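does this look right to u?? zinc ion version
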Amino acid sequence: MKKWIIPVLVSIAVFLTACSEDTSEQEKEDPEKAAPKETEVSEKEEPDLPASAGDRKVSEDGSMIEVEEPERIDVIVNKQRKLPDGYEPPDLTEPDVPFSFEEFHPKKQMREEAARALEALFEAAEEDGLDLVAASGYRSYERQKTIYENSVAENGEEYANRYSAKPGTSEHQTGLAMDVTSAEMAFRLEQSFIETDEGSWLEENAHRFGFVIRYPEGKTDITGYAYEPWHLRYIGEKLAAEVHEQEETLEEFFGLYPTN
Ligand SMILES: [Zn+2]
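got this back:
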């Protein structure tokens, strides 16, 4: 066989593989052609990142997955990908940044690497004359459980599912998220934050410090959450820069497409 034939054959094989993936993706989105749920799940390809081979289905219909490596900085937690019950991050610490309240509270904490990055972000914002205030970081499994159960009791399950995360599915439990606000917002977490200097600065600059705006506008179908310009997720500088550049959600970036 001539030497040039092998690379050509390899290229053709790669091309065919890419095309067949595209086709299956289109079929999945076409409701008329949609395969039954079990088939869809079993055919879904597991991406290299950030899913792990040990991620396992924990609900009967396969719609809920438990992540195997919750300590990964690039762990993806959402309404379909939960942390192991009772998971606690290993290295929680309180970042040295202004908070919207004085007293100690576990929600002031983040994981070490994220806390240091948040400090750098706050320092840079201050140098630009901005006044960021941290509001809520780490949230334990138990605390999320209480919040969720109270919401179910008060408003019913459908409402609770829409507005609060089930225990194990909140990104705040990873210790890699922080809700950020400002005095101008009277420390509230509202979408109008994006209209303030602090909110727009975050959107432009958070990635330089390894953070992404985790729940962008118009991506509710993908993330499962309404726009939250205040919710920062630490994922490391390299990944954050790539995600910011591509203007994608983490689900899109990693090829995970959960639906509600
Ligand atoms: Zn949040």
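Residues 8-47 have pLDDT under 50 and may be disordered. idk if thats expected tbh
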